[in-house]
Fold each of these.
Amino acid sequence: MSAGPLASQRAGGGYKDRLKVFAHTALDPLVRGLVSIGLTPDHLTWTGLVLSIIAAVAFYDGQSRLAALILIAGGLCDILDGQIARVGNRVTRFGAFLDSTLDRLGESFVLLGLAGFYASNLLGLYRKALAVVAQVATGELEAPLALPVLQHQLVDPRAWLFLTVLSVLALIGSFMVSYTRARAEGLGLECKVGWFERPERVVLLIIAGLIQVFYAMSIALLLLTIFSFHTAYQRMAHVWRLTRGAGSDS
């Protein structure tokens, strides 16, 4: 049974390694130019966080296509900071720690921006309903007309509530993917099982944002949640097998 996750780990690492080699080769001239003007990895790491916050605001404002384009720029910063560290001989343990920490923070802002968008729409529906009720109470709107007006103005609030909760679950799932690996490595165990990591999550959000259709982002969040929790489960199962197999636990 243990061969399955390990095999998927090797396969996932293979295509990711090829993509990294391709990206590094294509961006090498740009990286050397940035190093020559004194740009440091930390500059790009912080820039990536700022771009993630701006993307979160754009998602909150309902401008998903703009948010997706900003996320692309942030992803480029995420690629360049590590490459600049290597080319400029600036690889440090704190730099790696800062990069991972701000990546998690930036992704959290993005998902919170989406949750805020859905929650604000839910609140907007509630306010519209109250306005219609007030119009009926003051005689501005006849009671028989209230229901058609509500049906015209309101989308099912359960949809907005579901998507708000789903955005929060996606956030929890993304943290679980990172935490399970970090905790395992803190115990001295290698834990690279599972293919659905931050790059895949960001790409999924970018694609849904560029499509800019309501159901596209809904499906993206659902997939993000399912795959994130599945990857976290894979890592938990992997660590359980390693510790039980090695006799580390009673």
Amino acid sequence: MSRISKVGLIGVPYNVGWMGPGVDEGARAFRDAGLVDELKKVVSEVVDYGDVEVRLPPRDGGNPKLLNPEQVEAVCKSLATMVHSTLDRGYFPLIIGEKTAFSWE
């Protein structure tokens, strides 16, 4: 089993699939709490690639089991691009600050 030695931090400061407050502040809160410094204690290299940037389509609350599906899709596509780029550089992508909520009932 290989050990992770390089971490690429990616923030997702969006609250698109969840109605609760504060989700969009998660990435900043982790950084402010010293996440990068703590990671440097256990891996050889940490690069903070910043936050995903997304042009969000309008909000859509029409489906109570999946809020804002077009916004969720837009965030996921942008995040996927950043994850791919991070992996191409040889870093393990650590994604912070994103939550989506689904109800399967």
Amino acid sequence: MTYCVALCLKDGLVMLADTRTNAGVDNIATFSKMHLYAIPDERFMALMTSGNLAVSQAVVNLLHEGIDTGGRVENLYTANSMFRAAQLVGEAVRRVYVNDGPTLEAQSVKFEVSLLLGGQIKGRSMRLFQIYAAGNFIEATPDTPFLQIGETKYGKPILDRALAYDTDPRDGVKLVLVSMDSTLRSNLTVGMPIDLLVYHRDELRPAVTRRIGDDDPYFRMIRDSWSQALRDAYRAIPRAEWLG
């Protein structure tokens, strides 16, 4: 399984992905699920993937090599807007399904893939999209400034309660790390290390790219501090009077 989360905030993007893939309890491996597409001072995009590893790798490779769209080859380096980039991701998903979907289904393997695409092209708006296995997509908005794929349920409550569009990206980093820690504690199919990206609006280059392992002191502090804060909050809540 996978957990990827992305925030689209007033001042930038925060994106986080785990790296565990598994095909059973005795077949576990580490693969990066975050892929960067950048031309300095012209565009910066990050793509995170969830689902069947072979399917997601085929989509990623197709987006690098390009898609023939009627006599013209397009990829994420040529798209003229983030909306067009999301359309290309959706088209790549559909083309991989045409090639691999029937064969997978013949082997009783579901065609599973979902993706998060965030970034900005010079002179255009910074945007964040979630692309589904059918190739269609939705966009994050100021009312709903985060999107998730994979094992989403454990990490969602903290984002629902604490995140707002005007959250500082530095605080957004804390929130996605708490969200990831909650998922790691509750689901063994999501695992370390994790990949973090911070992007500041209009900079067209990443502000932070960091791989975080179990021994990372800041993540250990986040994990310990959040656990203690939850225990303290629980103890501070008064008992119900009707318990006697």
